[in-house]
Amino acid sequence: MPDREAREDGKRTRKALGDYFKPQWGEYELHGSCMVFNEAGKKLFVRYSKFYPVPSHWWYDIPRNKWEGWQSRSLVFLMSRGNDVRFVLLEPEDSQKLLDRCPVNENGKKEIHIRKRGGNFDFNEWQAFSLTARVKTLPVPWA
């Protein structure tokens, strides 16, 4: 379970993500990890992680009630390292392909790891996927 600071940082970055896409997709509703842009018909499932220096990755889990019966939602991974926040948006088809490659842990969750090796980002579970070009910087007001 993330600590209070991590939960607050996650909320702040999810709001910043909504504001980032608002000019393009319109108003949004944020319900925990789920974000809906009704005008654009976009549904996002957003996960947040701080960087873990050992073993040098960002770590995410997707609960069973979210990954079972995945439907036309995009996955977004928020990657925080200090005040630097980046994100990756996967369209529904790539989201499903990634989820299909991930093992299920003892709690019924799919675990996903993003690593940065040199200047490149990759999914530990799907290294052939071209992730680096999709990583974008997210401006987050920390004050």
Describe the structure.
The protein is α+β, with helices and mostly antiparallel strands and 143 residues long. The protein has one domain: PvuII Endonuclease, Chain A, CATH 3.40.210. The chain contains three helices and nine strands; from the N terminus they run H-E-E-E-E-H-E-E-H-E-E-E. Strands 1, 2, 3, 4, 5, 6, 7, 8 and 9 form a nine-stranded mixed sheet that branches.
Helical residues, percent = 25-40%
- How far do the termini sit from each other? 25 Å
Roughly what fraction of the amino acids lie in strands? Answer: 35-45%
Overall radius of gyration: 14 Å
The helix-and-strand class reads: alpha+beta
pLDDT < 50 stretches: none
Name the shape in a single word: globular
Helix count from the secondary structure assignment: 3
Total domain modules? 1
CATH T-level topology = PvuII Endonuclease, Chain A
Task: Please describe the topology of this protein.
Elements: H1 4-25, E1 29-31, E2 34-37, E3 42-52, E4 57-62, H2 64-67, E5 74-81, E6 84-90, H3 92-101, E7 110-117, E8 120-123, E9 136-137
Parallel strand pairs: 3-5
Antiparallel strand pairs: 1-2, 2-3, 3-4, 4-7, 5-6, 6-9, 7-8
Summarize the structure.
This protein is an alpha+beta fold and 143 residues long. It is built from 3 helices and 9 strands, in the order H-E-E-E-E-H-E-E-H-E-E-E.
Provide the descriptors you would attach to this structure in a database record.
143 residues; 3 helices; PvuII Endonuclease, Chain A; 9-stranded mixed beta sheet
